[in-house]
Amino acid sequence: MSETTADRLVYRGKEYTCGIDVTLAVVGGKWKASILWHLAQQTMRFSDLQRQFSDTTRKMLTQQLRELETDGLVHREVYPQVPPKVEYSLTEKGMSMYPILLQMGNWAREHLRD
Amino acid sequence: MSETTADRLVYRGKEYTCGIDVTLAVVGGKWKASILWHLAQQTMRFSDLQRQFSDTTRKMLTQQLRELETDGLVHREVYPQVPPKVEYSLTEKGMSMYPILLQMGNWAREHLRD
DNA sequence: CAGGATCCAAGATGATACTG
DNA sequence: CAGTATCATCTTGGATCCTG
């Protein structure tokens, strides 16, 4: 992330009005917060994630994981064997997001009673 | 927000896998975080917000404000006069989100260097 | 001034089939 | 097992015009 003029931020070629929006761009995608939460509990194989997100297509899951990997929050470890084995885990950067995710969860429970 | 079975949450008719996703649904919309941040600084008229978000259409701004109002984060005060005057401010619930927004902004600055 | 209504383009997501 | 490719669809966001 780099700063330009008058509080404008640039991250990966896109402009944002504030850091909050950058964070939302990184963790706000569909399923991303959930993925991060699950990976914070334990390293998981792709098939484990598929089980957790049974109503999500493989395509979406893969896509979101790739983006999280690109942003450096998730590490993807490929074991060169047949059948393939791929494990996903959080990087330090990913871990650093965890406390904020917890607070977001708590906020919903405390403030959004129907 | 209410709980159903196996960690499933329901908020305003939609199902979510966790509270984090509910929070993201509420504050993750386009411009919403920015709107909340600005309103945390001061009450603003619609025209003030238009100036701040000059590259946003009235339609989008109105839509996002309406949703924030529905979710109880923003208060909309209409003054019955001609020409109309409408002021937007944060509710207590909206204010309660502010610390988390700040943390999200800080996280981006600390962890997302290009 | 502060919007609402309508139509359309673009982007995000889903279904399905195929692969090393 | 862990994907990719392609096509269809559903949802968002923008442009434009109208109103009390």
Automatic annotation (TrEMBL), chains A, B:
Domain of life of the organism encoding this protein: Bacteria
HTH hxlR-type domain segment(s): 18-114
InterPro entries the UniProt entry points to: HTH_HxlR (IPR002577), WH-like_DNA-bd_sf (IPR036388), WH_DNA-bd_sf (IPR036390)
Annotated Pfam families: HxlR
Keyword Transcription among record annotations: yes
SUPFAM superfamilies: Winged helix' DNA-binding domain (SSF46785)
Region forming the signal peptide: none
Entry protein name: HxlR family transcriptional regulator
Keyword vocabulary terms for this entry: DNA-binding, Transcription, Transcription regulation
PANTHER family reported in the protein's UniProt record: TRANSCRIPTIONAL REGULATOR, TRANSCRIPTIONAL REGULATOR, MARR FAMILY
Lineage: Bacteria, Pseudomonadati, Thermodesulfobacteriota, Desulfuromonadia, Geobacterales
